[in-house]
Every structure is written in C-alpha cells, then in structure tokens.
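INFO worker-7 received task bundle
INFO bundle size: 2
INFO processing item 0
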Amino acid sequence: MGIQEVRNYFREKGLKHEILEFNASTATVELAARAVGVEPGMIAKTMSFKLRNNEVILVLTAGDKRVDNKKFKATFHSKGKMLNHDEVVEITGHPVGGVCPFGLKNDLPVFLDISLQEYEYVYPAAGSPNSAVKLTPAELQNITSGQWVDVCN
C-alpha cells in the first residue's frame, strides 16, 4: 500500500506528474515544507474525517490553515471526527503522514478547501511519509474530481 498505489493510479490515469521522494520525512507540514523547499501553506495536507452517518471523507487544505469546526459542520451538516491511525491505513490504504487523495484503497469523496487556491502550486503527499507531488490547484481538482469547499479559518 502507499506510494506504489499512487504510481499505479497515475500510470492508469495517464498522468505524467513526477512523484517526488525525499530522504527526509515529509510526514508533517513543517517537515514537508522543509524537504520540498516551499512555505508551509503550499503543502496540501490531507485529513480523513468520519461524519455522523459513518461516511468517510478526505479534506485537503493549505498546510498553514486549520479546519474551522463551525464551517465544517455547516458545509457537511455533521461534526467531523478524525480517523485514528489504524482507521486511516485501513480505509485509505496510505500510512499517516503519506495520506493523499490518489490510489486510495476505497473510493472516498474528496473536498478541497479554497485555501489551496492561494497558491500557483501545491504539494500533497504521494502515499508515503517521504513523498509529494507538485500540482496546480486546478490539476488537483481535476485528478481527484474534488469539490471546492470553504472549511478553514
């Protein structure tokens, strides 16, 4: 599971984006920004939430933003509970620190916070805690079929 599934996903979709791998960890926004050499906001962090009806969704935000609970609840009509480490691996197929919206074990709805649109390029993980891929926000939306939302403060 993880980076190989992302590689397979990109190959199957005919995507030519290079998956970047680093010797250093990219498991946190700060570590990823340092490894990639960009500001923290350009790291597209992927968070997995369980909604009241047990539906699991992925929400990607700019790395320097925090989810606003009131906006989240208004958007999804539910409080969101973040998955624990075991649930993340079981449901997404990716390890914590490498979760991304590509090559998922299960088909999950993807939501992209508008904070990502502040940047020309963003860097989501690519299935491992030492990987990333450089995408424009439009490419990210196109690849994931993600829906734009406003859930950050």
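INFO item 0 finished
INFO processing item 1
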Amino acid sequence: MGNSVDDAFEILLEEIDNIYRNLVDEVEKFLKSKDFEKAEELFGKSKKIQEFSEKVKSLQSEWKTIFSNQKSLLLNKNTKSIKKGLKTPESAYVIPILESLIELGGRAKMDKVLSMVYEKMKNKFNEYDLGKLNSGEVRWRNTAQWTRFKMIKDGLLSSDSPRGIWEITEKGMEYYKNHSKRFK
C-alpha cells in the first residue's frame, strides 16, 4: 500500500462495502416478504451508501494524487512511529490469530480474539509492541488489526463477517494446518 492513510482508505471502503452488502440482503428479504415499504426505505439507504463510497474513492484518489511524488511528507513526526524492525512484524501474528479463531469455534468478537493472541504472543512482545500510539491504543493491538486486514485480502479471514467479528475461512484453516508447526 505505501502508507497508513492508503491502508485506512482501504479499510474504510471495505467496511462501507460490507454494510452495503448487508443492506442489499435486507432489501431482498423485505421484497420476498412483500414488505415493499421497508424494502424501498432500505434501498434508498443503500443508494446513499453507494454514493458515499464513491465520494470516499474520490478522496482516496485525490490523496494519492497529492502525495504521489512526496512520500517523505507522509511521515508525520508526531505519530510515535518507530524504526522498521523494532516492533514484532505482522507476519508473526498470523498463526496466533488463526489458532485463536480455531479455538473459539471459527469466529469470535475482536476483543476475545485479541485477548487470546496476547496470551499466545506476550513472551514475544517488546517495549515497542507494548507502547501506546497517539490514539492511546497499544501498538501490538493496532498491528494485529492491520494483520487482520491483510489476512482478509489473502482470503484467510472472512471479508463479510459482521462488524467486530473475526472469522476464519477454509483457506485460513488450511493455511494454519500447513504453517502452524513453524510458530511453535
């Protein structure tokens, strides 16, 4: 991606798309039950969400245009960013996330998954992982959430789970079976 703003746009667009798809499903349910008034109301909302998504895509494109040749400006000195290699890499989170989800029956709330990931990884975390970002969030939790985003892109986690729910896919189960021995 290149930077956290690009990643944030991708996450936002993904969440908007999930909401849109859920609304479309609801419209179909109301159409089947012949509740046309409710279907029309939700259809109107879905149209507004689609328009909003287009605005976000336009902003994303504008962002990329503004900073395409000025990567150094993207580094804000106030973000408490650290040198590459000081925090535990995202790749180290993949197996603990998958294993936690398997132990939780395949899907669970984010906080429950992160709690289990912490228990599995706490001996690997260093002072940088346990430090706080400007947002107040602990760095390792933020890194785990970015890892989830990449795992969704790789098909290891479901992209259409309800907000706040993490869910493993068949591909994720297979990946865990083939790679978990390296983690232990």
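INFO item 1 finished
INFO post-check item 1: The two ends are 30 Å apart (CA to CA).
INFO post-check item 1: The chain has two domains: 4-69, 90-183.
INFO worker-7 idle
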